Amino acid sequence: MADKQDTITAIATAPGRGGIGIIRVSGSKSTDIVKCLTGQIPGARKAVFCAFRDQGGAIIDRGIVLYFQRPASFTGEDVIELHAHGGQVVLNMLLKRTKELGARQARPGEFTERAFLNDKLDLIQAEAVADLIDSVSEKAARSAMRSLEGEFSLQIQHITEQLIDIRAVVEGALDFPEEEIDFLADSDVINKIEKCLAAVVEILARAQQGRLLNTGVRVVIIGRPNVGKSSLLNRLLQTERAIVAATPGTTRDVIEDSILLDGLLVNIADTAGLRCSDNPVEQEGVRRAQQEIQRADIIVLVTDSGKAQQDEAAVLKQHVPSGKKTLIVHNKIDLQGKSPCVSAGDQDPPAIDLSAKTGAGINLLKEALINLAGLEDMGEDVVLARTRQIDALDQTRLCIANGLTAYVDIGAAEILAEELRNAQQLLGGITGEFTADDLLGEIFSRFCIGK
Ligand SMILES: Nc1nc2c(ncn2[C@@H]2O[C@H](COP(=O)(O)OP(=O)(O)O)[C@@H](O)[C@H]2O)c(=O)[nH]1
Ligand SMILES: [Mg+2]
C-alpha cells in the first residue's frame, strides 16, 4: 500500500499537444514544492496566475496554480495543480522540477488509491473513476457517473444494513436455544430475509446491465466460404474493412473492429470460411476462426439463403460449443427477391433473412444482437459495474438463499447465521471495506497515470 508520507507527482492530462496541461502533486511536501516553484503558497482553492521557475530562477512557463488544502481535496492530502501550456516538453520540465523538489513519480491510479485509503471514496466509486474515463458511450459514462456519485454504494449499504439487522436477531436467538424457534418466528425473520434477497437480485440486475455497458460484447461471424461474412462485417461497420471477393477462401486473418449499438460496445470479428482445405494458410485461418469462436459472447452463423440450409446444424455441431449464444443469418435475399424477416424457433437459434449487399434487414440483425447480448432499457437505473462486483453480488445472493433454505427446510439457524455472515463479508469486499491488499493493488494499477 502507498506510503502515506511521500509526495507523488504526475502529468494528469493526456499525452500530446493541448492548450493546457496539468501536473498534479499530492502529499505533505506539496506546499513546499509550490513555494519553491512559484515563490508563494496560494490561498486554498484560489486560481493564482504565476511563473513556474526552475532551480536557477529561470521561467519554465507561466500558468495557473491551484492549492487544495487537506482534507478537502481529491486524495484527502495537500494537492497542488499546475496548469501550464499543454506541450510535452514543458510539462516534462515541470514534472522534473517537482521531482527535484522531493516528489516521486506517481504509479497509475495512485491518486485515486490515496483517495480510497483516506476514505474519500469507497472501492466502487474508485473503480467508477477509471470506468468513467474509459467509457465508450454516453450511456456507459452516465452509468459510471451514477456509480461514482455513490448510487451503487448506497444500495450495497442498504442491503448491508438489512443484513446486520437480521443477523442481530438470528444470532441473538442462537444464544437462547430453548426459545430459538419461537423467537425467530415472532421476529418475522423469514420475511426480512426474503426482502433482503429481493434487493440483492434487483441490484444484481442493474449491475449486470452496467457491466455489459462497461465491457461490451464480442461477436464472431462464422460460416462456409463465400456466404457473405466479410460483406456482413463491412455492412455492420459501414466501411470496406474486409476484402470481399467472389473467390472462396479470401479471408484468412481474423478481421475485427467495433461499433456502438444503443450505447453497447460490440466488437465484431470476421473469420475465414469454415471448410477443409489443403492450403496451410487457409488451415491456419480456420484454426484462428475456431479460437475466436471460443472467445465469443455471440456467434453469428452466416449462410447463403439461396442454398439448402441443412448444413447449418452441421456447422453448429462441429464448431460451436453448445450453450453459446448464436444467431443465424440467411444472407443474399436480394438474389431471391425475398423480404427481410426474423424467425424465432423454440429451440433453434433465431434466424434473420437479410442482404449484406443491399443492407436490407441489417437493423433486424442489430436488434437481435442487442437482445441476445441482454441489454435492456433500464433507463436511469443502471449502475456501472465490473465482473468482480457482479461475482460478489451473485455469491451474496447464493449465501442468503442457502441460509434461508437451510432454516426453512431443517430449521438450521446456525447455518443461516453463518451464511448471513458470509454475505455481509462479500458485500464488504465490493465496497472495499474488507478487500485484500493485493487485489487493491491490482485494481489501481489498471488506472491511467495521473489519476
Ligand atoms: N447478391 C449478393 N451478393 C452478396 C451478398 N453478400 C455477399 N455477396 C457476394 O458474395 C461473394 C462473397 O462475399 P464475401 O463477403 O467475400 O464472403 P465470405 O467469403 O463469406 O467473406 C462476393 O462476391 C460478394 O459480393 C448479398 O447479400 N447479396
Ligand atoms: Mg471473407
Task: Explain what you see.
This protein is an alpha/beta fold and 451 residues long. It folds into three domains: 8-119, Probable tRNA modification gtpase trme, domain 1 (Gyrase A, domain 2); 129-212 and 386-432, Up-down Bundle (Four Helix Bundle (Hemerythrin (Met), subunit A)); 216-373, P-loop containing nucleotide triphosphate hydrolases (Rossmann fold). 46% of the residues lie in helices and 18% in strands. It has 15 helices and 13 strands. It has helices at residues 30-38, 88-100, 110-117, 123-134, 138-148, 151-174, 180-186, 189-215, 229-237, 280-295, 311-319, 362-373, 387-410, 413-431, 437-445, and strands at residues 8-11, 18-26, 48-53, 59-68, 79-86, 104-105, 217-223, 255-261, 264-270, 298-304, 325-331, 341-343, 351-353. Strands 8-9-7-10-11-13-12 form a seven-stranded mixed beta sheet, sandwiched between helices. Strand 8 (255-261) and strand 9 (264-270) form a beta hairpin. Helix 4 (123-134) packs antiparallel against helix 5, helix 6 (151-174) packs antiparallel against helix 14 (413-431) and helix 8 runs antiparallel to helix 13 (387-410). The chain is flat, with a radius of gyration of 29 Å. The two termini are 16 Å apart. The model has no long low-confidence stretch (mean pLDDT 92). Guanosine-5'-diphosphate binds at residues 223, 225-231, 244-246, 250-251, 273, 331-332, 334-335, 355-357.
Keywords:
binds guanosine-5'-diphosphate, flat, Four Helix Bundle (Hemerythrin (Met), subunit A), alpha/beta, 451 residues, seven-stranded mixed beta sheet, 15 helices, binds magnesium ion, six-stranded mixed beta sheet, Rossmann fold, Gyrase A, domain 2
